[in-house]
């Protein structure tokens, strides 16, 4: 398929119900003209096959390697994309506040149709940014999930779901984590799976 005219290199993946205009993902899309939000047809009742098909369509249309920036269910989508024929186009994935599907089902019964939680090691570099008090992901499960994915993990403390409701607007400090991912990617994936403190990551908790 022919590449689109705008040189997109970053795809932003919101979760259940999308990301509101005040969400950091929308801010990041506006900040960077080479970023694009993958808009799903149905944000309220996510179905894995439909969401995956749209992400594949976007990656195929762009025709170049991309970075993925997921939040919540968007992180699970990125992990599922690892099984796609186009997974080799992913340079790396920043996965912020991934949701556990069991916890999500208990909070939103009979809404999310995403199957089982993906547990395979991701074939591309990845950095998980998580919270100690995320209602969508118990911290021990967060650590197990990051380990299963082979992802580096940064814990930024009690930050809720790292969304508007927990005080995160533009979240400019989050760019530090994206830069860390890119640095780790440049070094190669051999050492992926490490646990970083916020100080090592160069980030830390910021509500800006």
UniProtKB/TrEMBL annotation:
Keywords: Hydrolase. It comes from the Bacteria. The keyword Metal-binding does not apply. Gene3D superfamilies: alpha/beta hydrolase. SUPFAM superfamilies: alpha/beta-Hydrolases. Pfam families: Ser_hydrolase (PF06821). InterPro entries: AB_hydrolase_fold, RBBP9/YdeN. One of its GO terms (molecular function) is hydrolase activity. The keyword Hydrolase applies. This is Alpha/beta fold hydrolase. It comes from Shinella zoogloeoides. The lineage of its organism: Bacteria, Pseudomonadati, Pseudomonadota, Alphaproteobacteria, Hyphomicrobiales.
